[in-house]
Amino acid sequence: MAESLFIPTEASKEEKYGAILPQIEALISGEKDLIANLANISAVLKESFGFFWVGFYLVKDNQLVLGPFQGPIACTRINLGKGVCGTAWKENKTQLVPDVDAFPGHIACSSASKSEIVLPFSSNGEVAGVLDIDSDKLADFDETDQVYLEKLISILEKTM
Ligand code: SME
Fold it and tell me: Coiled-coil regions in this chain (predicted)?
């Protein structure tokens, strides 16, 4: 396992994602423990992009329960179909939300959160959890984030 990350500075978003995805793959591919891998992925994303909040919720007993994350304290449980995370789980589909106040039922863990992207991941054909990233800026995520984060989800799913 590499001891430190190489994160290009002064680089475009594409270049940063391009640089960190192989490093994430190297970091998690030899490790089967899901919590360890989710913790490291949260750390890499936080260190690379400085996101306001980045972390995971895991499906447990028919709820999403807070998992490894980086950032301020967050809501611990989310029901199916509730908020952006519960919607990503229910629809098994990435949710790209430029303005959280315009998303019906958005769960405000922090009033500082302005935009959000949530991606589900699966194990054995069922959604096992979601990756949630929040920004304190409006419309901070776009299709580029979606494309690269979906690649990250594929890398994660291969370890599960
Ligand atoms: N805003 C999310 C809840 C989780 S926090 O943002 C960390 C939602 O609406 O599902």
Answer: none
